[in-house]
Design goal:
Elements lengths: L3 E3 L3 E6 L5 E11 L3 H13 L4 E8 L2 E9 L15 E2 L4 H14 L26 H5 L14 H6 L1 H9 L16 H14 L3 H10 L6 E2 L18 H8 L5 H7 L5 H5 L11 H4 L12 E2 L1 H12 L10 H7 L4 E4 L6 E4 L20 E4 L5 E5 L4 E7 L14 H13 L11
Helix pairs in contact: 1-14, 2-6, 2-7
Amino acid sequence: MVDLLSFAGVAGEQPDVGGRAVTCTVGGACESGYGRLADLLAERLESGREVGASIGVYRDGQPVVEIWGGHSDRNRRRPWTGNTVTPLASTTKALATAAVLLLVYRGHLDLDRPIADYWPAFATAGKGEIATALVLAHRSGVAALDTAISNDDAAELDPVLRAIEAQRPAWPPGSRHGYHAMTYGFILSGIVRVITGRTIGQYFADEIARPWHLDLHLGLAADEHDRVAPMIGPTGRGAVRALLTPMWLPYSVQLLCKKSLTYRATFGGSAAGFNDTAELTRYEVEDPSAGGVGTGPALARLFAALGGPVGGTRLVSADLMNRARISHASGRDQVLRMRTDWGLGFALPGGPMVPAFGVPGVFGHTGASGSIGFADPDHQLAFGYTPNYWGELSGRGRTTFRFTAYVEAAYAAAGIRRWPAQQTW
């Protein structure tokens, strides 16, 4: 970053779990005019609404915010540094999508051809006409598997791909849409492997992460696990309160039935339990649906490269991204039981996956951890945020996301006019 102001001295105090006062320092840099984001992060750390987080903003293809702060552990003993990464939850899907779009851009994959043309066994059980575009828009019907995905199966990959091949769609492909919470990344990994001979995590690392200098990973090497800020889950009572709010209630009711599509596609789609620390910290396993790790500045850089040129170069063509950021599915989601809006691999503003920020043309993805990455190509702005505290499941507020204030500060600093946004869930 050039001509940036350092924020080494922005700090506050926060009690740890034993009542001890600890200092929370915000590090990194902001371009002049963007300092409100560092101030806001410091305020959140001091109040306890954040434990640790990193934030990145790109404007006109250049980094204008790369900051981090707080602590990487529940007891607030380990300071968050510029080298700290944290789980992305479902924002991981944006990484998998970028890998597939790069294959399309290079001419190795046709979004409209049946997947079975590349992966013949995928045609089993009525899936012969499903194209990659239907998966990217969450319209394929392969939203859940009859058996949960374990980390052992994911590490081997073949058992998951065999289960996908055998699975019958939950609805006629293309007729409806529903969030492919767990199956999404594995279907894409199967496509990438038959075309390239590499898993999607390997392809992303080789063709995107390393060339674009992105600290984003679909499978993190074991010798780098000490860099990870593990997710800090909410209390059980807080999670229940959040799931009983009006926004989530239709979804929550479906979770009561373990045979429901909603349960099988989300909580029941993984063999790892919510409090299963040993399984949840196997960061080396490629879970391209929800198991990626990375930083906010790296997410911002990825989305900047998807939304426009970075250093004079785009990741994929403007034409391809213009197709990816228009609506391909909108309305009641068969899994989440609320409105969702999807482009190709990216959520569009309006529903809870990417709240409306008062500007058109935005595309991105969020995760249950509270993380988000998005691009606004019309204004050449990109944003990334990765916290380690699952605040959105804390039960505080009905539709208040922590990232909203950071996003609003970024737009204000960029001088981009927005208008009041109406949520539609």
